[in-house]
Amino acid sequence: MKIICVGRNYAAHAKELNNPAPKEPVIFLKPDTALLPKSMPFFYPSFSTDVHYEAELVVKIDRVGKNISQKFAHKYYSEFSVGIDFTARDLQDTYREKGLPWERAKAFDGSAPVGQFINKKELVDQSNLNFYLRINDLERQAGNTSNMLFSIDFIIQYVSQFFTLKIGDLIFTGTPEGVGSIKIGDTLEAFLESNKVLDLKIK
Ligand code: ZN
Fold this sequence. Notes:
By secondary structure, this protein is an alpha+beta fold. The protein has one domain (about 5-200): Fumarylacetoacetate hydrolase, domain 2 (Alpha-Beta Complex), CATH 3.90.850.10. The protein has helices at about 10-15, 90-100, 105, 150-160, and strands at about 5, 25-30, 50-55, 55-60, 75-85, 85-90, 120, 130-135, 140-145, 170, 180, 185-190, 195-200. The strands form 3 sheets. Strands 2-1-10-4-5-7 form a 6-stranded mixed β-sheet, with helices on one face. The chain has a 4-stranded antiparallel β-sheet with strand order 9-8-12-13, with no helix packed on it. A 3-stranded antiparallel β-sheet has the order 6-3-11. A hairpin with a 2-residue loop joins strand 12 (about 185-190) and strand 13. The structure holds zinc ion (ZN). Zinc ion binds near residues 5, 7 and 175. Zinc ion binds near residues 5, 7, 56 and 85.
């Protein structure tokens, strides 16, 4: 499986990192080794001193497809969760300045913890879904899918032009504003509507 990530999909987050709102989606990939096995802590990597959390709605693909039209995109997924797109911001800033690829900053082992999935039938309206991140019991991010620059179905149409989507692939749909640093000892909890889907310790 592969993990497809959308960057800068919320205008307020693009702004907080001094990026313009994009005209088409910014896409990058993480390998399957970026998935953090359930119930494992996240071990702070030795190569960074500024790892950031980015809480994101995650869509699980459950049907194979290529060149999917936006109209039929909803047939390719039935479950949502929240994941964390961990980012070594110090490395990313260096690579960005030099115009180099981001993978070492974004795709390292364990950089993609994903919570429990919830069937979309249990959620009222996917274009108006709330998700939250709490760190040590304080709310640090609150997102709503209505603020996405590119909708889930548009993203599926867009990425499936380039990459065949396969069963089990995950799409991280971008983070809202409020990203920041984690530190060893933190506890991260992610919620999708009122459901706690992720509980993660930083070690
Ligand atoms: Zn992200």
